[in-house]
Amino acid sequence: MSAQTEFVTLSVSDGTSMRAYVARPQGKPRAGLIVFQEAFGVNPHIRDVTARFAGQGYLAIAPELFHRTAPGLEASYTDFPSVMPHLQALTDGGLERDSHAAFDWVQRDSKGLVTGAIGYCMGGRAACYAAITVPVVCAVSYYGGGIVPGRLKDAKAPVMFFWGGKDGHIAPEQVDAVVSAMRAAGKPYVNVVFSEAEHGFFCDARASYNPVAAKQAWPLTLAFLETHLAGATRQAGA
């Protein structure tokens, strides 16, 4: 299915305005999905991924998380220093408000669709945080750096984690801490490690792109979303 795409402007509870990229499926959407960006902005890759999810039947929205410091930022994957100030300026409070704004937009636009979250890199942490602070029914985190294990005890939705076994940015000890925290708290999770993949393996615009891992991760992601979002939809309609 092809997608209809547009930018919308959301009002955030702290009085700021946040642009977001929306991709709508043809016909009635099966569920909503918040797509959280990498540190490089809601760039062509994130917009493409958002549209791909719409092609799978999801009403997908990608909020611009740097809207307070760099509205519309789209940085090169080879220029990480330029995004660092904006990454460092993110706060948990701001991220929670932004996530709620995106979630609330889906609820208004769709009249109450069950909604999940997915994110990549910086967005992987945001997706985990959404599972704690926003009423999403599931979350998927691709190589999410900076996840605080101690907070995962408050997760209210199942989480699927993807990691690269050769990720030079996220140490194996950090991955183990995240997984151990989910297990210790008795939270439902799925953990997938691609032994030969590096950080950013899903992004075909990055030098670290791993087509084998990306091809394997995609159907796993869709199955996880289908299981939890479709299941929640059936329960809501029961």
Describe this structure as you would to a colleague.
By secondary structure, the chain is an alpha/beta fold. The chain has one domain (3-237): Alpha/Beta hydrolase fold, catalytic domain (Rossmann fold), CATH 3.40.50. It has six helices and eight strands. An eight-stranded mixed sheet has the order 1-2-4-3-5-6-7-8, with helices on both faces. Helix 4 (122-133) links the parallel strand 5 (115-120) and strand 6. The radius of gyration is 16 Å and the shape is globular. The model has no long low-confidence stretch (mean pLDDT 95).
Relevant terms:
Rossmann fold; 8-stranded mixed beta sheet; 238 residues; 8 strands; globular; 22% strand
Query: Which CATH C-level class is it?
Result: Alpha Beta
Structural class: alpha/beta
Q: What percentage of the residues does DSSP assign to strands (E)? A: 15-25%
Number of helical elements:
6
Estimated radius of gyration:
16 Å
Poorly predicted ranges: none
- CATH homologous superfamily placement: Alpha/Beta hydrolase fold, catalytic domain
Total strands: the figure is 8
Task: Tell me briefly what this model is.
The chain is α/β, with parallel strands linked by helices. It is 39% helix and 22% strand. The chain has a single domain, classed as 3-Layer(aba) Sandwich (Rossmann fold).
Give the secondary structure arrangement, pairings included.
Blueprint: E1 3-11, E2 17-25, E3 31-36, H1 44-55, E4 58-63, H2 80-89, H3 92-110, E5 115-120, H4 122-133, E6 139-142, E7 159-164, H5 172-184, E8 189-194, H6 211-237
Parallel strand pairs: 3-4, 3-5, 5-6, 6-7, 7-8
Antiparallel strand pairs: 1-2, 2-4
